[in-house]
Amino acid sequence: MFIYVPFELPFFALNPELNVVAPCRAWDITGREEAIEYAKKHNVPVPVTKKSIYSRDGNLWHLSHEDFQFRSTGRSCHQLYCSLSSTKLVEDMGVGRVDMVGMKSREMYDTPGGTILFNAVRELESLTLDREMMQVKDSLAIKYAELVYAGRWFNPLRESMDAFMEKTTETTTGSVTVKLYKGSVTVTSRKSPDRLYS
């Protein structure tokens, strides 16, 4: 099992006596092709082949695709996870799809549920939070993401930021109607019983 450092830190925070085995550090496997060969030789099922070598990491919120030689940008490489609206509707509209080219790889992300929720919550916050609160919340969100990405979930700073976020969202209630069209999310109406202004 390949262990990524952000997973190790929470493991050790919960139990410092754990012994993490990280084959990617100990074995002489230098690339994906070799990893696939090893899996094949030892009858380990993997969802990739040398011909279709890109990796997918997914959950109910998000799905990412990564490969240096990613050539397909069509629907064949997108597997959508969305419990907020019809998957067919989201697939047809292409909501939450991002294509990024970095220094090491090309990555494609499908985050339809997250995109819809983010836009809806943002609209409610514009009714219920003042400008200064929004600015502080936005700056802390970046730091929060950095901590989580680095595996520092069990960190007092993250817990303190949770308390701040819970306080700021006490009044973030209401309803938002959105329109999905060709990859975009447009808010068509919003209302909240806790809005700051009449």
From TrEMBL:
Pfam families: Arginosuc_syn_C. It is an enzyme of class 6 (ligase). Residues 87-198 form the Arginosuccinate synthase C-terminal domain. Keywords: Amino-acid biosynthesis, Arginine biosynthesis, ATP-binding, Ligase, Nucleotide-binding. Its EC number is 6.3.4.5. InterPro entries: Arginosuc_syn_C, Arginosuc_synth, AS_cat/multimer_dom_body, Rossmann-like_a/b/a_fold. Gene3D superfamilies: Argininosuccinate synthetase, chain A, domain 2, HUPs. Pathway: Amino-acid biosynthesis; L-arginine biosynthesis; L-arginine from L-ornithine and carbamoyl phosphate: step 2/3. PANTHER family: ARGININOSUCCINATE SYNTHASE. This is argininosuccinate synthase. It comes from Ziziphus jujuba (Chinese jujube).
